Amino acid sequence: MKTVEPTPKLSHAKMQRAMRVSVVDGMFGTAGENFIGPFLALFALALGATKGQIGLLAALPAFLSNALQIPAAQLADRWGERQRLVVVTSAISRLTILPIALVPILLNGDLAIYVFIALVTLRGLTNSIGVPAWTAIMADITPRHSRGSYFGYRNVMCNLAALVSTLVAGWFINRYGFPLGYKICFYIALGFGLMATYFFSTIPVPKAAPRRSSGRAFDLRAPWQLLMKPSAFRNYCFTSVLWNFAVTFSGSFYAVFYRENLGGDPGFWGVVMAVGLGAGILGHRYWGRLADRYGQKNVMLLGGIGASAVPFMWLVLPRPELAVLAEFGSGFAWSGYNLAAFNLILELTPDDERTTYIGVYNTLAGLATAVGPLMGGFFADAYGLVPVIIISGVLRWVAYFVFMKKVPGQRAKRFQWSDFLPFGQELRLGQKFQALDGTPEDD
Question: Theoretical Cys-Cys bridge with 28: which of 195, 209, 218, 359, CB 3.0 to 4.6 Å?
Fold first, then answer.
């Protein structure tokens, strides 16, 4: 039998400080990630990778990382030192950037490609071990009633950092080319990432008592019992499997579509990504307030309309420069969907066993995320990118309607479509965030 003890709550002052430091941590981490993440597929192309290998680049890290989510959740529960676990794993993950940057200097041909894939996989694998613990910590340091506003604000600040870093990275790559431009970006990513790890280590976190069990050190069967009986959590898991597969079936290949089908310049890709991040900056503030008022599901449904339309936006582009339009629509829609999806999983999981629930959810959704690009890469090599993008679009709409029917919202406040117009209130980005002290914002 497990001994479950409730996690103690932070004091008012410590919760204020925790949320503020988390914003700084998020900004450094996001800036670092955007010096490397958006350019991995282009880096692989420059190494000579095929579409199938690019699919493997997305699939293998996702598969192995998410296969470890349940053991990672149990490790966090049993050890109790959740913050230390996140600090150690994130630092190791970020240090793998060093050998990644050296690949084109030391190796060439298929060996360089597969070593690159292996190192990117190791980077994702080590980082993923801390994900259930990080998610539980975020739930513990934020008041439930203002999570939408807080994470909306946090995401705005993170997207501002991402916007600047993506533009700067694109400039370096355009100015210095391959491999020097990429090396500069990767080293900057390492510096920002380690700064993020440091700031996270200073966040006040409530101490979670280790959970003892008379059974084996890691029981990989018990968490799956959460899916044996009907529940909103189970429905959310299964609809997320379908949605994540549909999204990742084409998600890895828009950079390739931009480069090969539209003839776009690799340096301008940074501008395209930056436009999407700019749309996210607008979107997070807008969606965060709506999520607190009308519930996470309603926001996911509205944002999901745009996210489901993304593949078709790309297919109708006549010129590579117009990719900024598709990315703007994508960034705005995804900012709402992802914000609400994160908050909804926090609402659907109990406080005392959240790491275990998150581990189960991440495993299911993550395995779909791994299979999607692998199959997408196979189809792209065999039939081209256009059929892959069409299939992804159709499957997204199927997943959207399944989610609409099967997953209940925790709050069902009625709204009119006019409530979603941004006039006068939702886009006041200059207004200081008022919920850092744990009190709701005035409507």
Answer: 195
